[in-house]
Amino acid sequence: MTTAKISSALKASASGPAMQQIIALGALVVLYGFFAIFGNHFTSSDTFLSILGSSYYIGFLAIGMTFVIITGGIDLSSGTVMVGAALVGGVAYNVWHFPIALALAMVVLTGVLFGLGNGILIGILHLPPFIATLGMQFVSLGLCAVVAKVQTQTYPSLGTPDGGFKNVIYKWGDVPMGAIWLALFFGLAWFLLTRTKLGRYTYAIGSNEEAVSLSGVQVSYWKVWVYVINGLFCGLAGVIYAATFSSITPQTGNGQEMYAIAAAVIGGTSLAGGIGSLWGTLIGVFVISVLKTGLLSMELPVQWQQVLIGVVVILAVLLDVVRTRRLRRS
Description:
Layout: H1 3-15, H2 18-38, H3 45-70, H4 78-94, H5 100-124, H6 129-147, E1 153-154, H7 165-169, H8 177-195, H9 197-214, H10 219-245, E2 247-248, H11 256-266, H12 278-297, H13 303-329
Antiparallel strand pairs: 1-2
């Protein structure tokens, strides 16, 4: 596969999910309008901030997941890695007495190390992504609990000497700092995916891994980097998660990765690989956040969130299947 063909594949991959992105954006507008009419105080500024707040850590997870899915992979460990990394950071702060900044750096580093582990298992040892990340889910779930000695870890609250980190990371008065950080790292991820060799090979590997390998590209090397980037965003999600919830409970986080997968798929990223857009993923994140917040405003049980998000994901996958079949026929 020549550079010209890779560039052509990148353009096709970027334009492929355009219609699904339009549909997702339309669904977002319709959902917001529906909840604005039938929800309680849904159009208030507090509700808007709640929608933003629930999108932060899911957004970071979804950005990393988009890289992985575009290569034709999957990561079932990102939810437990996020919470596990936050747990390790809590141990660093409470037990090892690290400064809060260094403890938060430990959260990010833990995410990167788990991402590197996934990358080695998948890129170098050639394990199927489903199996490798399922195993890493249990490893991260148990190992981080061992580090914490199965103790809940708490981060400093506002008003305490170190509690100011919440202002910097999550919310400073009425300023949604989490949205600013999400936007900054979204820009970084977009640059990596659309303007670098890493991004070109990410799309190319998902489109036709065998052809990329036969062209002399070290597929294993680039796959490792993709999972390291995913681990980085899991760690960043862990920082936001710690700032949001303060108390981190061992052996939790399982299932959060499904929101990230759902956001990517809703936004047009194909589970078959080779097609995806971070802009679509961002739309998908807000679809999920509006749905979660809107159902709460209607005082419906939390279980309905899972039901309706599941329905939305199924519809998005059906659209993806139809699109993939049409592309193959053409």
